[in-house]
Design a protein that fits this description.
Number of strands: 2
Number of helices: 3
Structural class: mainly alpha
Helix content: over 70%
Strand order of the largest sheet: 1-2
Shape: elongated
Distance between the termini: 18 Å
Length: 102
């Protein structure tokens, strides 16, 4: 059971890091000026991958204030807090409850 917690903690930690990077890249790409009116395949894929947790937050909380959408930033904050407090605690809990090697 402890090895499952350690492995799960590392996997969730890695996935949340990847998701944070994708959200930041999506924000940077959306800020860049584009001469092409239609989004490229990369932009479409990036939006499809990065938007689900942001849309979940948008449906849950009102995140727009004076034409500024704070949902991506709140999503990054929530993912970082989950990485620091939940996923790291899973890893440490698994290490502490590992059976002793005789």
């Amino acid at each position: 059971m402890s090895q499952l917690m350690i492995t799960g903690g590392w996997i969730f930690n890695l996935l949340s890091t990847i998701w944070i990077v994708l959200i930041v890249v999506n924000l940077i790409v959306s800020w860049l000026p584009s001469k092409i009116k239609t989004p490229t395949i990369f932009q479409q894929w990036l939006r499809q991958v990065a938007e689900p947790p942001i849309n979940l937050l948008r449906r849950t909380l009102p995140t727009v204030y004076r034409d500024m959408d704070f949902a991506p930033w709140l999503t990054i904050l929530i993912l970082v807090l989950m990485k620091v407090f939940i996923f790291r605690a899973m890893i440490y809990w698994g290490m502490l409850n590992r059976p002793p090697v005789v």
